[in-house]
Design goal:
heterodimer, A: alpha/beta, Rossmann fold, 6-stranded mixed beta sheet, 4-stranded antiparallel beta sheet, 9 helices, B: mainly alpha, MetI-like fold, 11 helices, about 75% helix
């Protein structure tokens, strides 16, 4: 589904944040990327839908190299890649329904979107998804009136509205309390399994990653240093990823 | 632990007096006295002025509304100038302001737009009005064009600043859905700046209303021409009638602008404006409980 080949990124020439990352994401399952802060996890995720321009390498998604696309080609690739953000990134002054429908903007012409003339099928889908994420009745609430957990539910629903072939999540639970974090991860996992969408998640929380991921990728210094099932992630491996050992129980 | 004796001695007054502000204050006072002497402003001169003013003000009253037809015609023309210039200015300022915002636009688009805005703001509306009177001739058209230029400068600048202050995270999320640029503007940018934009626009209408009574003095249409003629013919009672009418119009405009702002600021979006007045919103089959 997604193959990263020799992906590198330097914000400043000579100081690479990502170094020669090679990764294969299967068409199913949840992959968690863990690693210390500043190791390039967010950069990696954002390179995949080109919110950040990679310096080098190929991003093969669904048979095309996203790294070489531009203009309409890039927009068409993006609409198949849903994204969930750490700070939800909802448009605060729009309603929940408008935020959900913004997931369809890649498919609807700007003229229709400005006049809020979305196809009835999209609107039906949005109401269904509101039920799925547990926000029935919130359609006309403004996004800035919601709590953090509710906002992230809207963020997930917006991404799923795109009918994505791949879901990216950049620290989706880092701004949430532990209980809400588990609920949000559960929701993401349920959606991934029931709709058969592969999910790539950046995470701070190793325990949460072990609990929900089918596969864990450990990064350190811009490189992949671990790749395997969560069961293989023992203290020795964590030491390699995060360095030191004082923090391990 | 340091001994107490090592600490600096407490100052009697923690608010240290500074010499420079005092010097500046004295210098300003000296300059004012010098300037008065230079311009021959003496008490005797002020007495003459006050006498003249008393005479003038006594001739202002009572206001004379007998030539109300000329008055109403001039006011209506001023009103038209203000409304037309505001509408035209807003329509033009939107794209120009957008182009000038450096966070959304590349340098090749933002620099020319910024230059245009700065140029539009460089001159007082009266100077611009004189230029247009020379260019297109006497009359309301020159006034409309002059105030349009002023509106572009004012709204363009504020709109640019509003766009440059938006949260790019929201824009990033809309971009990530694969939305075309126009949709990113409509869903990611406009909702964030819309209520502020309404504020600028009503303020500009208010300001244009005031300026439209003035451009007539240089022949660019509106009540200003009538006012100037009345001054020159020493029809001070008619001058008073005109001034009172202008005050009434400005106050009415102020009330209207406040009402518009109360409706919009803080809780409305472009979409709300669109939905208002449509019978049955399609997006509300659920009720909150």
């Amino acid at each position: 589904m997604l193959t990263l080949q020799h992906l590198s990124k330097s914000y400043v020439a000579g100081v690479p944040v990502l170094q020669d990352v090679n990764l294969d994401i299967a068409a199913r399952g949840i992959t968690a990327i863990i690693g210390p802060s500043g190791t390039g996890k967010s950069t990696l995720i954002r390179c995949i839908n080109r919110l950040i321009e990679p310096t080098q390498g190929a991003i093969l998604f669904d048979g095309t190299d996203v790294a070489r696309l531009s203009g309409a080609g890039l927009r068409h690739a993006r609409r198949h890649i849903g994204m969930v953000f750490q700070e939800y990134n909802l448009v605060e002054r729009l309603t929940v329904m408008e935020n959900l429908l913004s997931g369809r903007l890649g498919y609807v012409s700007a003229w229709r979107a400005w006049r809020r003339k979305f196809p009835p099928a999209d609107i039906r889908r949005a109401f269904e998804l509101l039920d799925v994420v547990g926000l029935t009745g919130f359609a006309n609430q403004r996004a800035d009136a919601l709590s953090g957990g509710q906002r992230q539910r809207v963020g997930i629903a917006r991404a799923v509205m795109q009918e994505p072939k791949l879901l990216l999540a950049d620290e989706p639970t880092s701004s949430l309390d532990p209980k809400t974090s588990v609920e949000i991860m559960q929701l993401l996992a349920d959606i991934a399994r029931s709709r058969e969408i592969p999910v790539l998640i950046n995470m701070h929380d190793v325990e949460l990653a072990k609990r929900f991921a089918d596969r864990v990728v450990g990064m350190s210094g811009g490189r992949i240093v671990f790749d395997g099932p969560p069961g293989d992630l023992d203290d020795g491996k964590l030491k390699v990823i995060y360095g030191g050992e004082g923090w391990l129980h | 632990m340091r001994a107490a004796t090592d600490l600096p001695a407490p100052l009697d007054n923690p608010f240290r007096s500074s010499v420079w502000p005092r010097i500046a204050g004295v210098a300003l006072l000296v300059y004012v006295v010098w300037a008065c002497a230079q311009m021959d402003i003496s008490w005797a001169r002020v007495e003459i002025g006050l006498e003249n003013a008393a005479h003038f003000f006594s001739r202002l009253f009572p206001p004379n509304f007998t030539r109300w037809e000329i008055l109403v015609k001039g006011l209506l023309e001023s009103l038209q100038i203000a409304v037309l210039a505001s509408a035209l200015g807003i329509v033009l300022a939107l794209p120009i302001g957008l182009c000038a915002s450096r966070n959304l636009m590349p340098a090749w688009a933002s620099w020319p737009a910024r230059f245009l805005i700065v140029t539009a703001r460089s001159f007082h509306p009266v100077i611009v009005a004189i230029v247009f009177v020379k260019a297109v001739g006497f009359g309301a058209l020159a006034g409309v064009l002059a105030l349009t230029v002023a509106s572009i400068g004012f709204i363009g600048k504020l709109f640019t600043e509003a766009i440059e202050e938006i949260s790019l995270k929201q824009v990033e999320a809309v971009r990530a859905t694969g939305a075309p640029f126009a949709s990113v503007l409509g869903f990611g940018v406009l909702p964030q700046v819309f209520s502020r934009f309404i504020g600028f626009a009503t303020y500009q209408l208010d300001s244009n209303l005031r300026n439209s009574t003035m451009v007539g003095i240089v022949g660019a249409g509106g009540i200003g021409g009538t006012l100037f003629a009345a001054f020159q013919r020493f029809d001070y009672d008619f001058v008073c009638a005109i001034l009172l009418s202008i005050i009434a119009i400005i106050m009415a405009g102020e009330l209207m602008a406040t009402a518009v702002r109360r409706i919009f600021i803080g809780n409305a979006t472009f979409a709300d404006l669109w939905r208002r007045g449509r019978a049955a919103p399609k997006l509300q089959p659920l009720q909150d409980d």
